[in-house]
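hiii, so i know i said id send this last week but things got crazy w the move. better late than never?? heres the sequnce for the chain we talked about at the cafe, plus the structure i predicted for it. fair warning i was half asleep when i ran it
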Amino acid sequence: MWTNAKNAALRERAARVIPGGMYGHMSTGLLPKEYPQFFARGKGCRIWDVDGNEYVDFMSAFGPNLLGYCDAGIDAAAQQQQALGDALNGPGEVMVELAEQFVDTVSHADWAMFCKNGTDATTMAMVVARAHTGRPIILAAEGAYHGAAPWCVPKTRSTGTLPEERAHVVYYSYNDAQSLTDAFRKHEGRIAAVFATPFRHEVFSDQHDPDLEYATAARRLCDESGALLVIDDVRAGFRLARDCSWSRIGIAPDLSCWGKCFANGYPISALLGSDHVRAAAAKIFVTGSFWFAAVAMAAGVATLRRIKETDYLERMQATGQQLRDGLADRAKAHGFSLRQTGPVVMPQILFNDDPDFRLGYAWTAECLKQGAFFHPYHNMFICAAHTAADVDAGIAAADRAFEAVRRKRGDIQPVPQLSHLFKTLADA
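okay and structure toks below
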């Protein structure tokens, strides 16, 4: 029997000692009340909350779980390094090995630098681009997510930051070559870099692949002006290709940012760069107390080896397509219509005729009670541990949830916690 009593008690305790009870993207404040805030364990593609409820998980910890929770081989590599030491007076040999592995794997990369979070990597890319060009302006797509530092935190979550902290960030429209061209003309001679995500993957929105005209224009405009092209692969890295994600469309960046994917849940991220940017990268000062710790690097080496030597990606694509087809079939059978966008390995699942998300919220809440963990407004993540049987179990849970929502469809109310957010987004 599904219950969330222990989660409720932990929320009360957390509210007394953690501001807001929880913060950042891990907060369930915008989610249906049924969503658990605290979890006990994970294994493969399954997670258990503190109440003991088991779920087939389609969020993969918002992306870090690439190969499966508690993968035996990756954990063994990390534990072997842990026995030798983690944060020491300097990095271990494993740092050089990890950099070599990355350079050998990612076609545009000639060097690598390591940090801890995606925000670290994107901020380091910004600093390197300014050091290389001597220019101030960063071009970023309107609404794109590049982290939680003051220069890039979402405008709707920018309390405590100053306008001056993003004064040199100029926004263009993703997938719009003309918008990007206009930005270059307006700020001619002052642009350090263009930031682009592998595909458009904002929350509450359909996902869109990069248009080739836009991507080609980004590369050409950077080449003509001396600016750098930066691909933020923190979310999508190694989920779309065994290379930088834009390698699929034949566009090589100067810098790429990585996280989530390459150490299977161990805390590490990376900035990769081409040789002509090496001198600038060597001049900047960036560091962190735990950036050079060895355990996550050992996990990274083992994960990159698995990426190169196994069919993990093809299996994820197959199970992702199985999920997409099965959900479409079950939704139609119950009289619902879904919009499933983005790559099948990173699915975004929204309901048609659901402008205030009440159906999506009701359905994902019912899925939880049936043993499947989906998200009502964020893209999800298939991992290599998902089997056909796991996906079938997720589809079966979703089928029961569709039926439950169908029965009460006329009584489902708007989502109170979204009204303020949507107003803020409309005013932004």
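btw The first strand starts at residue 39 and ends at 43. thought thatd interest u
miss u guys!!
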